[in-house]
Design brief:
It is built from nine helices and ten strands. By secondary structure, the chain is of the alpha+beta class. The chain folds into two domains: about 110 residues, Roll (CBS-domain), CATH 3.10.580; about 90 residues, Beta-Lactamase, CATH 3.30.450.20. A hairpin with a 5-residue loop joins strand 4 and strand 5.
Length: about 230
């Protein structure tokens, strides 16, 4: 599902008025522990942004000077229905978010975006792990260094090895007979039958490619129905 700006923006943001003084805003920044805030007009529309940088520039100026004299008027606002990935491409650290009427409804920062994508990434990884662990085939995956990165529940059961004990280890040291690391060099897909003690396993190995480059290998295996 596409993530929209309104899904990740900060709400309840402090909004400043252009007539507020430097001294008053400095106190608000200290109380709220923030380093910037939007400036809005009587209709709630954004007319500027005032930050700690502006406070530093105000040193030596009268403390009762209105922030209108120092605020940044060249403000980029974004709509609340903009996809979050598009907002990532805007080279601004903080962005006022407005509704269809042009009134400010939130504030989007790089921290908001990073937190949202981290949560989305974790959710995706958890969902993928559930799928991998529910498959009836054993799955082993290695990265480009030949280290084991995936060893699903079926693989644990078939091989009698716990995933946490071998993840991060070189596959050639754990399963030398499979020769998975050879696929990193050849880039070929391979299918064969392997005998382990009295059991026979059908194994399929394929390279993992990203933009034409081999980034790893995945192997699927299952006991031969003839066994």
């Amino acid at each position: 599902m596409r993530v929209l700006v309104r899904d990740v923006m900060s709400r309840g943001v402090l909004k400043l008025r252009k007539e507020q003084t430097i001294n008053e805003v400095a106190r608000l920044f200290l109380e709220r522990i923030i380093d910037g805030a939007p400036v809005v007009d009587d209709e709630g529309k954004v007319i500027g942004v005032f930050t700690k940088t502006h406070l530093l520039r105000a040193m030596g100026k009268p403390p009762d000077m209105p922030i209108e004299r120092l605020m940044n008027r060249n403000v980029i606002s974004i709509g609340e229905t903009m996809p979050a990935e598009e907002a990532m491409n805007i080279p601004v650290g903080r962005l006022p978010v407005v509704n269809s009427d042009g009134k400010m409804v939130g504030w989007l920062t790089r921290t908001d975006l990073a937190s949202a994508y981290l949560a989305h990434y974790k959710s995706s990884i958890e969902g993928l792990s559930q799928i991998i662990n529910s498959t009836v085939r054993g799955i082993i995956a290695i990265n480009v260094q030949g280290k084991i990165t995936v060893f699903n529940k079926t693989a644990e059961r078939l091989w009698g090895i716990e995933a946490e004990k071998i993840k991060g280890m070189a596959v050639k040291d754990v399963f030398p007979v499979m020769k998975m690391d050879n696929i990193l060099k050849t880039g070929d897909s391979v299918s064969y039958q392997l005998q382990v003690d009295d059991a026979f396993f059908n194994i399929e190995m394929n390279p993992i490619e990203v933009n034409g480059e081999i980034k790893g290998v995945v192997a699927e295996f299952y006991k031969s129905p003839e066994e």
